[in-house]
Write a structure and sequence with these properties.
The chain starts with a helix and ends in a 28-residue tail after the last helix. It has a domain of 33 residues. The protein is built from two helices and no strands. The longest helix has 28 residues. Helix 1 packs antiparallel against helix 2. With 78 residues, it is an all-alpha fold.
């Protein structure tokens, strides 16, 4: 198996995400020795870490050019 640049970039991004989550969380846990402060830090750092990875920008092409709601075309007679 050949290591590609993409694999190295993914690994680097994953390690950065781990560091963003673990360093502040363990620091707060060590300094405060209270779980009540650790859980919010874990949640906040997870949100921050999720924005690290680069995402490809895709264009959403809308085939329905009239912009109308296609789900409301009910043909039943009540």
């Amino acid at each position: 198996m050949m290591i590609t640049t993409s694999m190295f970039t993914d690994l680097k991004a994953s390690l950065l995400q781990c560091a963003i989550v673990l360093v502040p969380t363990y620091t707060v846990a060590y300094l405060t020795e209270m779980m009540v402060y650790t859980i919010p830090m874990l949640a906040a750092s997870t949100i921050l870490a999720s924005s690290v990875r680069k995402r490809e920008h895709t264009v959403d092409t809308d085939l329905d050019s009239d912009g109308g709601d296609t789900s409301s075309s009910d043909t039943s007679n009540e």
